[in-house]
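Reply to dn_fold:

You asked what the input looked like. This is it:
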Amino acid sequence: MKTLFKLSMISMALTLAACGSSNDDDKQEIDDKQTETVTPKVTNTTYGPLSTGTTQAPKFAYFDLDAGTALSLTEEQAKSDTNWDIAFRRTGVYLNTHADNPVALYFTGNNVDFYDSENKVVSDKFLNANAETELEDYEAVTIDSIPEDADAFVGDVTEQILAGFYNYDVTTHQVTAADDKYYIVQSDDSFSKFHVSDLTQDGRAMSSVTIDIAHQASGETEFDEYQALSLDLAALCSLNDKVYIDLASALEVTENDDYDITLPCTDGGADYKLSLTEDATAIQDFDDKYTGIAPEAASHYGFQPNEFTEKAFDQNKWYAYNLQGGHKLWSQFGVYILKTPTAHYKFQILGYYDDEGNSGNYSFRADILGAE
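and this is what came back:
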């Protein structure tokens, strides 16, 4: 009996020990799972500084969000490259527009209180913000923050500065001169203001055009009286591939002469496309507000080359300028969602200066939200 009792007690002890071991293992497994569940995912991947050169020698810095690396590309290579997603050049931030890798952005709207009701900068907001104080905004953006409406995303758009000089009626298919659209061209040290005051069409071509041109010679501050340049495009294009126009003299010239704008020829006349030469720039003065250009301030008018880019980041500006003097930039720490063909990323610019205070050196955060 005693032996049996002892064996029973030993058996019970072993059973309890086995149960205890199993419970401990289960508890450890649960603890491990809980630990794994509550461990936060890293969502604060920082990059930079990426150098964009100096004011005197600016350069592009290209970045591939998928690989999380900067790419060494020339501007010519970048035009056809499908790996880079975002690029920086001094204060400008660019998105890839290649057909095989178009990138667009959505501003989440954080820190809108950095501007008041009149859209003026609230200086204290910018001055007191830094990477640590604005981390919470960044981490709050998740995959659920991606807007369902694809139209909420905007990309960089390439435009022609001389576009819009004609009106097209979609009902009658008639083309007329947009004589209220004025353009100012900067060429060499002079300026010329013009608008297309009349045109006629022949099928899909312009058969004639009249351009009113007012010139501001070098050293002057106001435009002269308008001179009308009337061109028989049907006749000119029967002999040439292009029509060349010198704005300073308000004359049609040859390709061997100095010229500022061209019209490409097509069957029956010229195509509906005005183009600037490579060494000329222009602005659109559609309100007809300028009677002259101040030469010393020409860089502040926004003159553009023949083709220019309307940047998405210009519509959703990331910085404020010169809050304390010294021409310094201050980040709004806006959180953007960048959409590529393969994924969505959140993105926040942290700074524009390196450790030595040199400008044009971008630091930023970027993390994937979800793959397509």
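Residues 1-40 have pLDDT under 50 and may be disordered.
Hope that clears it up.
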